[in-house]
Amino acid sequence: MPKMSTPAFTRAYSSFSHVDSDGQAQMVDVSDKRVTKRIATARGEIQFSTPEVVDLIRSNSMKKGDVLGVARVAGIMAVKSTPTIIPLCHPIMITKIKNNVEVQDQSTVVVETTVQCDGKTGVEMEAITGAMASLVTVYDMCKAVDKHMVISQVYVKQKQGGKHDFKIQ
């Protein structure tokens, strides 16, 4: 494919940090960034079509085992594996992971994954990858009982460190 390095093309891609001037995917150079404490929290939920599922989770009676515990560990493992899953993510030395997987009500399990590091790039992708892995694990462990689960509302809830901080209530 011919390279398209026309001025208009270059301007169109200049706002995307993971795209070079020729429109090719690239890993961002973070060598000139300063090391700061960085924290991100991602949240998501899975809704069940029947309260029976939550009863089985609460009583630890699911055939595959401890749904919340396994989902918590799956999220932690996913955080640590993010650079192998997301192609342009930097490997980051994670300093802390807190992965809460809890029954919210009679039809919902909520996941909040918080990741922390001292580094040159943020941990939003790690947090959202951990939350998603936890939710998919809940789905996997409950699919024999509920065929109509819905994973939803997955988003980065907060980010601290680097240029831009934000928090969604």
UniProtKB/TrEMBL annotation:
Transmembrane region(s): none
PANTHER family according to UniProt: MOLYBDOPTERIN COFACTOR SYNTHESIS PROTEIN A (PTHR22960)
A UniProt-annotated Pfam family: MoaC
One of the GO biological process terms: Mo-molybdopterin cofactor biosynthetic process
Molybdopterin cofactor biosynthesis C (MoaC) domain mapped to chain residues: 27-162
Catalytic reactions of this protein: (8S)-3',8-cyclo-7,8-dihydroguanosine 5'-triphosphate = cyclic pyranopterin phosphate + diphosphate
EC assignment: 4.6.1.17
Organism per entry: Trichomonascus ciferrii
Name of the protein: cyclic pyranopterin monophosphate synthase
Keywords: Lyase, Molybdenum cofactor biosynthesis
InterPro entries: MoaC (IPR023045), MoaC_bact/euk (IPR047594), MoaC_sf (IPR036522), MoCo_biosynth_MoaA/MoaC (IPR050105), Mopterin_CF_biosynth-C_dom (IPR002820)
GO molecular function, one term: cyclic pyranopterin monophosphate synthase activity
Pathway note: Cofactor biosynthesis; molybdopterin biosynthesis
